[in-house]
Design goal:
By secondary structure, the protein is mainly α. About 80% of the residues lie in helices and about 0% in strands.
Length: about 150
């Protein structure tokens, strides 16, 4: 495949990934805010639960739309790789939220409000999205091996 064609395909896959990710992000942010600001959950626990809820949308959207042209290894194998990837990414996201909220608490000299907590949450999402794309593209929804 020549470089312009490869770049065009990568841009297409990346665009679809971002659409699925945007919808998953809306789900995650909505659930996170509901858990933290309506039901009073701890931010780290809320981050983990919100990520897991959004994960269902992410798997279906990425498997059936973003990476539909990719090799379909056994469904169990693919789901296991997807779940392991997302466990790592969820842990990273929760860790980033914890560090960010702790940093904001020290910087502000008080518990951060909703705006600061959501800025930290969104920053963690951006970092984790980049890692997820690399892992989904290279490991979870791999290219069919050359025959």
């Amino acid at each position: 495949m020549n470089p312009p064609s490869r770049l065009r395909r990568l841009v297409g896959v990346g665009s679809r990934f971002l659409v699925v990710g945007a919808l998953s992000t809306l789900i995650e942010v909505g659930v996170f805010n509901l858990l933290v600001f309506v039901w009073g959950w701890d931010v780290v626990t809320a981050k983990i639960v919100a990520s897991l809820v959004a994960l269902v949308n992410a798997y279906i959207g990425n498997r059936e739309w973003t990476f539909r042209h990719r090799d379909r290894r056994g469904r169990v194998s693919e789901v296991v790789l997807f779940l392991v990837t997302n466990a790592v990414c969820t842990a990273l996201g929760a860790g980033l939220v914890w560090v960010g909220v702790e940093f904001a608490t020290v910087a502000l000299g008080r518990a951060p409000g909703a705006v600061a907590v959501n800025i930290v949450n969104l920053a963690s999402i951006v970092i984790v999205v980049l890692l997820r794309f690399v892992l989904y593209h290279g490991i979870v929804f791999r290219v069919s091996p050359a025959k």
